Amino acid sequence: MMTLWLRALLHRLHPFAQAANALRAPITLGVRLFLADVFFKAGLTKLADWDVTLALFTDEYQVPLLSPSVAALLATSSELLLPMLLTLGLASRLAATGLFVLNGVAVIAYPGMPEIAQAFHLYWGMLLAMLIVYGAGGWSIDRLLVSRLRQ
């Protein structure tokens, strides 16, 4: 049984909860756009000088189970295509999962990664995990499709 003081507290906190819920869609959109920008720019950098990219994947990055050329192609295409899906909020959980895996492999495959870069990858990984768990939010094609399917 809920005590009277707890009910009063919850009643007073309700407007704050409503305000937080109202911010969920724009904040989730901001997270999606931020992550899309980070990964898309990384893909453009790889694409800008393919010879350097292949050299990095051959000499610096130690991607397990894949040849350097396949790893470079997969990483670059993922960094260019998956952020587009995140931006639109289309297949967002799938796109976030792909980028989460890519982000994790990047940390594992580059043993010489500076500590500050590892911190950035951890930050991006946490934001991607949030999108995987909670989805794209209200301002997304995913939400539009789900609402249409329920009708």
Structure notes:
This protein is mainly α and 151 residues long. The chain has one domain (26-150). It is built from 6 helices and no strands. The protein has helices spanning 4-48, 50-59, 68-88, 92-109, 115-134, 141-150. Helix 3 runs antiparallel to helix 4 and helix 4 (92-109) packs antiparallel against helix 5 (115-134). The longest helix is centred in the first third of the chain and has 45 residues, at 4-48. It is elongated and about 65 Å long. The mean pLDDT is 94.
Compact overview of the structure:
This protein has one domain (26-150).
What are the salient characteristics of this protein?
151 residues, mainly alpha, 6 helices, 82% helix, 0% strand
What structural category do the secondary elements indicate?
Answer: mainly alpha
Could you tell me the mean pLDDT? 94
Low-pLDDT stretches: none
String of helices and strands: HHHHHH
Distance between the terminal alpha carbons, to the nearest Å? 38 Å
Beta-strand percent range: under 5%
Can you tell me the overall shape?
Answer: elongated
Number of domains: 1
**Percentage of helical residues?**
over 70%
Please state the CA-atom Rg, rounded to the nearest Å: 20 Å
Tell me the total number of β-strands.
0
Total DSSP helices: 6
Main pleated sheet: none
